[in-house]
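Troubleshooting log. The previous structure file for this entry was overwritten by mistake, so regenerating from the original sequence record. Sequence copied from the archived sheet and checked twice against the printout by T.R.
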Amino acid sequence: MKSLYKNKMAGMLLAVALSASSCSEDALMELNVNRNAVTDMNMAYLFSLATLNIGAEYENTRGPMLYAAPMIQHTASLSDIFTGDKYTYSAPYSGAYMETHYLSVVKLYTQVILETADDATQANVNGAAMIMKAFDLHRMTDMYGDIPYTTAGKGLLGEEHWFPVYENQRDVYYAMIEDLRSARDKMSDAALPLGVQDFIYNGDVSKWKKFANAMLMRIALRMSNVDPARAQEVFTEAYASGAFTSNADNAYIHYLEGPQAVNRNGLNDGYWNTRRYSRDCKISRTFMNWMVSNNDPRLMIVSGGIGDPVAPASWNLAPAAQKGMPNGYTSATLRPTLSPQELPAFNAGGNTMYSMLNLRYLDWSDPYLLQTYSEVALMEAEAVLKGWITGDANAFFTQGVTAAVNHWTAFDPSFAVPAAATTAYIRGRGFEAASNENKLRLIGEEYWAATYLNDLESWANWRRTGYPTLTPTQDPNRYEANEIPRRLKYWENEIASNPLNYEAAIQRMGGDHFMTRMWWDGGN
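Regenerated output below.
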């Protein structure tokens, strides 16, 4: 009996000890819980963060600035950093957009879409996230070709999404069309407003619908050479639904002046405010000569003058003095091409003898361009010529060019151009009397001018149309060919981290090369 009693007592003491231990452990675990931590994320905040991340400095100083802008001959540089000027390959620059945007943009928009899909009151944030996700992946596919689209950004849902499949670009385009239509049609004034958390339209649902239609028109024209019937159907439906009708509809990301890197125009941060790459690049001679020969009133908007950007006293602002830099040269290879009159100026000041970018459109708070009314009106002019819509192509052309000139006041009020000067410029272009082919050329050239500072779009439209006519650079150290690249190479990390899907994509496309054509790129 004594033994049984002792065993019972030992069991009771052990149970008490274990209970105390368990309570103690629970208490210790409770100490690790942050009672001030957020447990439910506001989806409008996540949407805002993703939107601001589109204009981040890292990738915008790589794909758009160092590759696209000099490739499309808006800018030129003697520096090897500007890889698009001489068609050299930099893995960190070429792959930067893909490297960052699947994580910092697409994943966030995807989370917003998933979290709000079944809540009718959240239709506006859901629709806006769908539109912006399609916008960003449209850029992505036009840079690289086949990309993950349907499964993109879903890694948190499970390991089956950790190695996303690259989809055929045609299928990506068709998916974007459906997503944009769905997003447009679900947005409503009856749902909760986005308000101040919307850095594009401040919650204006009608403008979001117009933006969706403008994007559909852009996508339709991009695929017009390879799928004209579907392209026409998409364009006419979007046109009838209603796209931009003035510069008040322009899709910009509105940033602020301030120290927070996430809330500043990253392209401008690279061009001037932090990186100051614009000291190393100038207005391209191609672009400058085009503006001069056409008496373009934007000449002294685009150009900030001849001189040293950091020394205003050195600036020569006379329009007749402006001089563009030829693309495709280094200091060593340029020197032998200079005339005896040019050489002293180059020896004395190097690249300061060429026209610099105007610092008044390079502030942190200046608009980050997504799509503008000028682009829409010029697309409408082209659609008339194609017989897709009825109307006056000359009227659309006039509206598009006028809007392209006037939209500069969003950057600085001093960029206002007198209406008479714009009218004279348009009249001088001779659109109304031109042949249809020359009308297409004029539309392409004006689209190129209108998308300055939105060079990924300039580059894409040039690949589709062949306008403006550009002469490739001839640097002997070019990566692949002395031809303007048709795409950028994928982020190299994909070769090791997603090898099967990467290999399937490059086999389907015909290689991971600069000169590999897009599905929609019929050539020029």
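The mean pLDDT is 92. Archived copy saved in two places this time.
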